[in-house]
Amino acid sequence: MLDYPALAALSEILRLGSFEAAASSLGVTPSAISQRIKTLEERMGEVLIHRGPPARGTDKALRLVQHLDQVRLLERQLAPQDRPTLLRLAVNADSLATWFLPVLGALDLIYDLVLDDQDHSRDWLRQGQVSAAISAEPQAVPGCDVIALGRMRYLAMATPAFIARHFPDGPTEAALRAAPAVIFNQKDAAQSRWAEALTGRRLHLSGHRIPASEAFAQAVALGLGWGMIPEAMIRPGLAPLSPLPLDVPLYWHIQRALKPALAPLTAAIRKRAAAELRP
Amino acid sequence: MLDYPALAALSEILRLGSFEAAASSLGVTPSAISQRIKTLEERMGEVLIHRGPPARGTDKALRLVQHLDQVRLLERQLAPQDRPTLLRLAVNADSLATWFLPVLGALDLIYDLVLDDQDHSRDWLRQGQVSAAISAEPQAVPGCDVIALGRMRYLAMATPAFIARHFPDGPTEAALRAAPAVIFNQKDAAQSRWAEALTGRRLHLSGHRIPASEAFAQAVALGLGWGMIPEAMIRPGLAPLSPLPLDVPLYWHIQRALKPALAPLTAAIRKRAAAELRP
């Protein structure tokens, strides 16, 4: 078996950023914490913490902490826990900005959300760094189950003044190449995918990068560029470049071992997705 | 002198994620792109790109691209440019969610925003990865100027039901240790700093991590925890844990060489900060 007090020390160090803070939080001496980590590193045969400050975990350390959280989540069904149980989830930013947050009330846990683009949130699960994920990827990660939730509809929006200036003849290939888009981050392919569906050509769009959902929608409303906006976030005064939507199917990926413990959360997610997403 | 066509190739590869996409965007062959990068790597004496996919730049590559963008920004004052000029800025998430975005209209540039906590956004400037930053840090980075913008006021807020359940005797040290907070990310110290100012003790708070400004405020409104919310984002129905505010001074840090080229942006930032922040 793994040394669980040592994993608890590792978890606190990474959460709080220092050996001293972890010692104070766990009510033990810093040297006891150091000793636990040293023994754990010897057992694992590799360094687990870059000492910092702040102290940072290696990939292996993050996987160990994630395992500890999962064990705590399972223990919770058997016995009361002495500290709040943590659940780490990857959620795509637009789900968080629209329908997702109220489901968290379904379980009395402490949630640690990791944000990413919908095409990449599942990667966090594959890397063993989260227990579950909302993602646009349909393929299951080994050891995980997948539940289809519905489709989030995006429309290509801009201000009427922006459309008049940049798209006088509609969203032609040339106009799409030249007009600034608003892009969530480097990994965000929504604009390119929609432009490809519309024109049949893969275009290299250039644009502002605004890596926050609300600010993204606000940037479009300010006329900085055109962008793919989830239906639920479209503000009055914007117009579509074309009626063609981009539908992004969303899936709930969950570690199979945690499925019973997280059943109330899964039920809340299914219910809310059924109400807020397209079938 | 550096080889600017090679830097342009490097920039496009990192922006688009592949040599092929960069070649298509620049209208040259992939082998011409490879050759430019190879020559540049030999000149710099180090690898600049992890081939991927997606292709990712080393720290040195990111600094070179940032330098190219700065040179383009300076050139813009002398001659029309054949492609849109990119400006990379670090902005703290709460500024982006409240007052910052409309200032971007002051210059006709393509903006690439990097988001971070207000205590760390300046680090991006020090690492040479952005041209300017909004940060709570008053000390200038070498080669940069600092302009004080005013203070963003935060209040410790929660729902009345949350306060009745977790803080029946007010925000005591014991209650603050036990009640779940909402925390932006691991680096976010706003809750701890406020709790220390209130109690005189450094507390280790535990809480949900919600790394998006609007969702953070929504999580507090849903009763998941208490959190420090910017005045401008406080929703009706929330109550303060205490009248004690946390005032965060904000500064505009800007590369000195770019100050003339970015003067209209700086003027817009000063004007909007004067209207939206506390003096």
Automatic annotation (TrEMBL), chains A, B:
<dbReference type="GO" id="GO:0003700">
    <property type="term" value="F:DNA-binding transcription factor activity"/>
</dbReference>
<keyword id="KW-0804">Transcription</keyword>
<dbReference type="InterPro" id="IPR000847">
    <property type="entry name" value="LysR_HTH_N"/>
</dbReference>
<dbReference type="InterPro" id="IPR036390">
    <property type="entry name" value="WH_DNA-bd_sf"/>
</dbReference>
<dbReference type="Pfam" id="PF00126">
    <property type="entry name" value="HTH_1"/>
</dbReference>
<comment type="similarity">
    <text>Belongs to the LysR transcriptional regulatory family.</text>
</comment>
<keyword id="KW-0805">Transcription regulation</keyword>
<dbReference type="InterPro" id="IPR017685">
    <property type="entry name" value="ArgP"/>
</dbReference>
<dbReference type="InterPro" id="IPR005119">
    <property type="entry name" value="LysR_subst-bd"/>
</dbReference>
<dbReference type="GO" id="GO:0003677">
    <property type="term" value="F:DNA binding"/>
</dbReference>
<protein>
    <submittedName>
        <fullName>ArgP/LysG family DNA-binding transcriptional regulator</fullName>
    </submittedName>
</protein>
<feature type="domain" description="HTH lysR-type">
    <location>
        <begin position="2"/>
        <end position="58"/>
    </location>
</feature>
<keyword id="KW-0238">DNA-binding</keyword>
<dbReference type="InterPro" id="IPR036388">
    <property type="entry name" value="WH-like_DNA-bd_sf"/>
</dbReference>
<dbReference type="InterPro" id="IPR050176">
    <property type="entry name" value="LTTR"/>
</dbReference>
<dbReference type="Pfam" id="PF03466">
    <property type="entry name" value="LysR_substrate"/>
</dbReference>
